Amino acid sequence: MPKIACPAQRRLRALGEAIGNTPIFAITYRFRERVSTVYAKAEHLNLTGSIKDRMALHVLQTAYAAGLLHEGDTLAEATSGNAGIAFAALGRALGHRVSVCMPDWMSGERRALLASYGAEICLVSREEGGFLGSIRRTQEIAAAEHGVFLPRQFENAANVDAHRLGTAPELVVQLARRGLALDAFVAGVGTGGTVMGFSRAFEVSSPKTRVWAVEPKESPTLTTGYKVGTHRIQGISDEFIPAIVQLGELSGVLAVSDGDSILMARKLAATLGLGLGISSGCNFLAAVMAGEKLAGEKLAAGTHAPVVATVFPDCNKKYLSTALFNEEPVRHGYLTPEIELLELDLLPRPNLDS
Ligand SMILES: Cc1ncc(COP(=O)(O)O)c(C=O)c1O
């Protein structure tokens, strides 16, 4: 934790008490005769309702400590929603002007939330460059005005560190309390902060733990290197491979269909009472796929069933106007219809005093 020097930093520290230290849902399921468990960090329980609070908090703390951000500065960020909401809430609470540039096809709920947190929203159409256009727009704002801080979540090492130093060690402690050691971690890639943070955390402490990035089957940017197609898993796969993503450090990339992710998120809500966003359904399916990959190895070695973890990045409420709340057709190859959710357990927050 950086040294607390000014009132903004003290306020940031107070808000930080409501960020991180999340419980884990242990979800036991049956898939093709195999009974297994997925461990998912409940990141929708953060201050503004998403995993992005961790990144925004750490980026702002680091920038204040390094003297890169000062009271009265404007924050300008390109985001597909959750990061903007996190920066808007924290930034406004610290007295900053917050300018959020985002593609104009993100859900209306995201825009309304940003406005309610006091952010100025700048929408960028596909013709104006979509996501990459949004990043360019923040650079134009910084060039035109003095005192503009660009968090640059797609390239800022503090984004990775939020998970390397926070989310990943929390998960390891929570599992260890149950006598469990992690075999694999999976996460959909937006900026890649989550997946790279976990990968870097395990590099030293448990190098055998596999870490898979996850992308939409309909738009496999990570495996092709460029934008192909469109998909409905808001928050991941933003048209390009972010600078902080080092695919060579990961075990590989898993692809999940957006329709399957929607069906899975709906099933988690209707069966277990977990109201989650589409990327949570996607991450859960990727965790099931990782479990399938490792089950054979474990069986051969005569050891326990693989321990696979992921994150639930946000809740379902930002998706009221999206396909998450419509009937979704089952297509050939989807996994959700074959997954029977059996049991829900909770692993308590890592810091039990908070
Ligand atoms: C809903 C949702 N899921 C997943 C992610 C991906 O997280 P990361 O940016 O750490 O890769 C994001 C990022 O914004 C998100 O908003």
Secondary-structure blueprint:
Elements: H1 7-16, E1 24-31, E2 34-42, H2 52-65, E3 74-78, H3 82-93, E4 97-103, H4 108-116, E5 120-124, H5 130-144, E6 148-149, H6 157-177, E7 184-188, H7 193-205, E8 210-216, H8 221-224, E9 252-256, H9 258-272, H10 278-301, E10 308-312, E11 339-347
Parallel strand pairs: 2-10, 3-4, 3-6, 4-5, 7-8, 7-10, 8-9
Antiparallel strand pairs: 1-2, 1-11
Bound molecules: pyridoxal-5'-phosphate.
Small-molecule binders: pyridoxal-5'-phosphate
Query: What is the number of strand segments?
Result: 11
Predict the CATH topology of the largest domain: Rossmann fold
Count of helix runs: 10
Low-pLDDT stretches = none
Structural class given helices, strands, pairing? Answer: alpha/beta
The figure for the number of domains is 2
Radius of gyration: 19 Å
Largest sheet: 7 strands, mixed
- H/E element sequence: HEEHEHEHEHEHEHEHEHHEE
Instruction: Give the mean pLDDT.
Output: 94
Describe this structure in words.
With 354 residues, this protein is α/β, with parallel strands linked by helices. It has two domains: 8-50 and 156-347, Rossmann fold, CATH 3.40.50.1100; 53-149, 3-Layer(aba) Sandwich (Rossmann fold), CATH 3.40.50.1100. 39% of the residues lie in helices and 19% in strands. The chain is globular and about 60 Å long. The two termini are 16 Å apart. The model has no long low-confidence stretch (mean pLDDT 94).
How would you summarize this macromolecular structure in one to three sentences?
This protein has 354 residues and is α/β, with parallel strands linked by helices. The chain has ten helices and eleven strands. It has two domains: 235 residues, Rossmann fold (3-Layer(aba) Sandwich), CATH 3.40.50; 97 residues, Rossmann fold, CATH 3.40.50.
